[in-house]
Design brief:
The strands form two sheets. This protein has a five-stranded antiparallel β-sheet, with helices on both faces. A three-stranded antiparallel β-sheet has the order 3-5-4. It folds into two domains: 3-62 and 194-299, DD-peptidase/beta-lactamase superfamily (Beta-lactamase); 63-192, DD-peptidase/beta-lactamase superfamily (Beta-lactamase, 3-Layer(aba) Sandwich), CATH 3.40.710.10. Helix content is 44%, strand content 11%. The two termini are 19 Å apart. A hairpin with a 3-residue loop joins β1 and β2 (48-53). The protein contains 13 helices and eight strands. α2 crosses α4 (113-126). By secondary structure, it is α+β, with helices and mostly antiparallel strands. Glutamine (GLN) binds at residues 62-63, 94-95, 113, 157, 164, 192, 257-258, 283. Substrate binds at residues 63, 113, 157, 164, 188, 240, 258. Keywords: Acetylation, Hydrolase. Its EC number is 3.5.1.2.
Length: 304
């Protein structure tokens, strides 16, 4: 199959689509990103790299970091982790508070903000230097030690984090947050402000496509049992109240972020990342979803 030709076709098809999405503005620093940025990077297990556009430019990974945080927490703790966060789709927006009240402060899954905040709390309790260890984990799975946060995005989100503070306060009232709220918020926002390119993200997500092994040296990072579970959570919960739509249109486990990135994996075949900042009303990259839908249609390679 000529993957580069397929990517070129996706690029030309999408250049004529009139998008209606808006770049995220509730984190002021993200609103400065040009809406016409667009890149895609496909990393195939057997045949290497294919790409187009702004695929080596770094952008704010935002909620894509929730997959790395869950991976770290699952490598430190076993099933007891899931007493504090569930694995069910929420059907609600990423920053919603409503379900938490009914469900006694136990978030529906680790990929909505409430769930990721619980994971941050767990990591703070277990790690010596949470920020350093988190960044080191990303360096380990990408083999790239200069990946870092964007300090402007970090500070920008810190000054507008009222909803995440509300989620933390509510969960703390139910006893599901052990550390102090400022510390958890700070670490959570730190993770979200990491900047990576589509190329780097497709390398990082290769562990989920390759049975838990880094592709570049075959080192086992995560057991295949844990990979199965993380991919299942990405499939059912990776896109908030649009997880069903993504599954139906694209047919891959994946995760999005409000920076406009989406990463998806086809276990045994490839990891792919796409970046286009304008978001649809559910907070997922409008053109990113479209590009991935075309990829699985044109290659015939979805998991279904
Ligand atoms: N969906 C996202 O990417 C949200 C992440 C963002 N940092 C927030 O907490 O609001």
């Amino acid at each position: 199959m000529n993957y580069q030709q397929i990517l070129n076709e996706i690029k030309s098809e999408l250049s004529s689509i009139h998008y209606t999405g808006k770049v995220a503005s509730y984190i002021p620093e993200l609103a400065k990103i040009k809406p016409d940025k667009f890149g895609m990077h496909l990393h195939c297990i057997n045949s290497g790299h294919y790409n187009f556009g702004d695929h080596i430019e770094r952008f704010s990974i935002q909620s894509i970091s929730k997959v790395f945080a869950l991976t770290m927490a699952m490598s430190l703790l076993d099933d007891e982790l899931f007493k504090r966060v569930d694995v069910e789709p929420s059907g609600d927006p990423f920053n919603s508070l409503v379900q938490l009240e009914y469900e006694n402060g136990i978030p529906r899954n680790p990929f909505i903000n409430a769930g990721a905040l619980v994971i941050s709390d767990i990591l703070i309790s277990l790690l010596k230097e949470p920020k350093k260890d988190f960044l080191n984990f990303i360096h380990e799975i990408t083999g790239n030690t200069d990946i870092d946060i964007n300090p402007k995005v970090f500070l920008s989100e810190k000054s507008y984090s009222y909803r995440n503070a509300a989620l933390l306060n509510l969960m703390k009232s139910f006893g599901n947050i052990k550390n102090d709220i400022e510390t958890v918020l700070d670490f959570y926002i730190y993770q979200c402000s990491i900047a990576m390119s589509c190329k780097e993200l497709s390398t990082a997500f290769m562990i989920y496509a390759n049975g838990g092994k880094r592709l570049f040296d075959n080192e086992q990072i995560l057991s295949s049992r844990k990979v199965k579970r993380i991919n299942a959570i990405m499939q059912t919960c990776g896109f908030y109240d649009e997880a069903g739509e993504f599954s139906y249109r694209v047919g891959l486990p994946g995760k999005s972020g409000v920076g406009g990135g989406i990463v998806a994996v086809h276990p045994g075949q490839y990891a792919v990342a796409v970046w286009s900042p304008p978001l649809n009303p559910k907070g997922n990259s409008e053109l990113g979803m479209h590009a991935l839908e075309r990829l699985t249609t044109l290659t015939g390679l979805s998991i279904f």
